[in-house]
Specification:
single chain, 396 residues, alpha+beta, FAS1 domain, four-stranded antiparallel β-sheet, 16 helices, elongated, Adhesion/Biosynth-related, FAS1_domain
């Protein structure tokens, strides 16, 4: 497997969709003229722009004054057009009747507390995680004892500006200001509201995956083992976000698992588990259930290195444009090199391919056929979910 980056380095990140409409959105505004330096502030650019609903929301929320008096020298503003606001239900009437708090929460997800120059991003393959000024308390979600900071994953794919997997405008359509950058976009951005575990529990088509996770957890508990998979899926402070390739019930059916009892019987074939031990390279090896040996390559294999330290907040989050743009880097990529007498190496156990603009995946190191994503780029609190109709097995 290829050693490319460590797990906690914020790997490239963001967006792409696979339809022509997503990859090649209609341009909004005009491409930047790179021959002149900026002569206006972002406030002046917004005031003179045709984006009346953004201006109205900014003024009513009072955020224009808050940003003006902050100590941050530069901002990047992702400004939805009036059509985007109306399509998302943010009409002039709704803006006029919304509270300052509601408007501030919506707008803060569109404002990044740094200057993102398109010229600096255009040669980067994959996406960049960008921290917005949106910060919130996640009561009732996972184990969050600190405020949750919202990130956007921004990048270039083809000639499009991508944000969280969605084509938002033609690349290079931006107005630079003295104190910030203004990018017009074609959709209102929506912050995530569910953790992975909540997404799984709220969608019946993943009931067998949920049951498999709960079953394995009960078996580990029976042997006085703690794996932390449910905590990983639930999210929380100090747990890194990641990418989950979530198998549907149909994926289980294709592999002969029609009921939870089928999954249990499969686990019993290799039960009880052997005791943990060190391998020939002196890496600590934790035995896993038979079903987890299939499910770990779907993303939860990162559990051994998912702990974050200090102010770190990022992890291996890859949107569909990453899978299309850098499949050779992600395939079998080493996320953690391992440490002797401790956790062993952690890899992405998947192989990726760009099939005419469609991301395809299979188990790494096998000649199993590549399979498509059923759906993609479901942004959740602790990363991103891509849905698959197949289990990533070593063989049929």
């Amino acid at each position: 497997m290829k050693s490319i980056i460590k797990f906690l380095l914020p790997a490239f990140v963001l967006l792409m969709a696979c339809t022509k409409q997503d990859i090649m959105p209609e341009p909004i505004g005009s491409p930047v003229d790179g021959t002149k330096g900026p002569i206006k502030t972002w406030q002046q650019i917004i005031e003179e722009s045709p984006y009346t609903l953004f201006k109205a929301a900014l003024a009513k929320s009072g955020m224009d004054q808050v940003l003006k008096t902050s100590n941050i020298p530069n901002y990047t503003l992702l400004v939805p057009t009036d059509d985007a606001f109306n399509a998302a239900g943010w009409t002039a009437q709704r803006i006029n009747t919304s509270s300052k708090e509601e408007l501030s929460a919506m707008l803060s997800f569109h404002i990044i507390s740094s200057r993102l120059e398109s010229a600096s991003m255009q040669d980067i393959r994959g996406n960049i995680p960008a921290k917005t000024i949106s910060s919130r308390q996640l009561d009732g979600h996972g184990n969050w004892y600190k405020r949750y900071n919202d990130y956007l994953y921004i990048g270039k794919y083809g000639d499009s500006l991508m944000i969280n997997g969605i084509g938002q405008n033609k690349w290079g359509v931006v107005t630079p200001g003295i104190n910030g950058m203004v990018y017009p976009i074609s959709h209102v951005l929506m912050p995530p509201t569910e953790s992975m575990w909540e997404y799984i529990e709220n969608n019946p088509e993943f009931s067998l995956y949920r049951d498999a996770i709960l079953l394995s957890d009960s078996l580990y508990t029976e042997m006085w083992m703690y794996m932390g998979i449910i905590d990983l899926l639930n999210s929380g402070t100090g747990i890194a976000p990641f990418t989950l390739y979530l198998p549907t019930n149909e994926a289980f059916h294709k592999s002969g698992f029609n009921t939870t009892e089928d999954i249990y019987n499969y686990c019993m074939r290799s039960w009880p588990l052997p005791d943990p031990d060190y391998d020939e390279n002196l890496f600590y090896q934790q035995p896993v259930t038979a079903i987890d040996s299939i499910l770990f390559p779907h993303g939860t294999e990162v559990y051994t290195t998912s702990q974050l330290f200090g102010e770190a907040e990022l992890g291996p989050v890859y949107f569909s444009n990453d899978l299309l743009d850098i499949p050779y880097l992600l395939s079998g990529m080493t996320l953690y090199k391992g440490e002797r007498y401790s956790t062993g190496p952690v890899h992405i156990s998947l192989d990726f391919r760009n099939n005419n603009g469609q991301p395809m995946i299979r188990r790494y190191g096998t000649n199993m056929p590549f399979v498509p994503l059923k759906s993609k780029d479901h942004r959740v609190l602790n990363g991103v979910i891509h849905v698959v109709d197949d289990l990533m097995q070593l063989s049929n």
